Amino acid sequence: MSAVIAAEALSKYFGRHPAVIDLDLDIPPGVVFGYLGPNGAGKTTTIRMLVGLSRPSSGRVLIGGADAVRDRAAAQHRIGYLPGQFVAYPDLTAREYLGYLAHLRGGVDHKAVTRLAERLDLDTGGRIGAMSHGNRQKVGLVQAFMAEPEVIVLDEPTTGLDPLVQREFQAIVREARERGATVFLSSHVLSEVQAVADTVGILRQGRLVEVRAVTELTARALHRLRFEFAGTPPNAAIVRALDGVRTVRVEGRTAHVEIEGSTAELLKVVAPHDVVDITGHEPDLEDVFLTYYGRE
Fold it and tell me: Which strand ranges, in their side-by-side order, compose the sheet holding 66-67?
């Protein structure tokens, strides 16, 4: 299946400082792609190149086959975009602003605009300049989704939104995926990314260091397990030598183990020692993120 978002050896330098280095992406239709990294890793720089707002120093971006620089108009027509700092005309009402954008873009169902606003609990009669940050963010979300674009690029989309609206946003993202749209989602809210993303890319110091399915990443993440034994726990050195074990701490008849990836071999080692209780933390995307950046 051909990529809807493709980046080929994409790099961006600011002077001599590399912000993004030799980035390759190949994202098919109908996928939610989570893009993760700490502040300064190059996430927003990547996004600005994807949507044609920043020219790459080298490499190229293709959106639905259209070059984001050479065929910018065709590429941008396929995109719904919410920037990290959404700005709109403050003197217009949300209704006026969204109507204006719909007119410029063409082909927008005004009933769809109304439905989106209602789902996000947005009063479109309010003047944008008088809105709270959260309500302005809702305006940004409506304009990103309202044309049902082929590609939706979202940079920190739920900033300022309350939990109920965040949940509705996640439902809207899933519905976009179901109709075949590709969603590129950059967010610091890792639970949100885990809830909706199929695949995650991890960016570190401008380089894409991992692209995997969310389920695969969490399966490889750090498990924190606590074992209670009726008698003497297994030898800590034997447990520590197992593949993936990061830490072992034995206190009396209790052992605390941190292990990356599969726990099968660990369970085989502890099983003969009369285990009376096992408690643990099911790893999530936050554990994956902390594992990656704890290695630096």
Answer: 17-27, 5-14, 58-63, 66-67
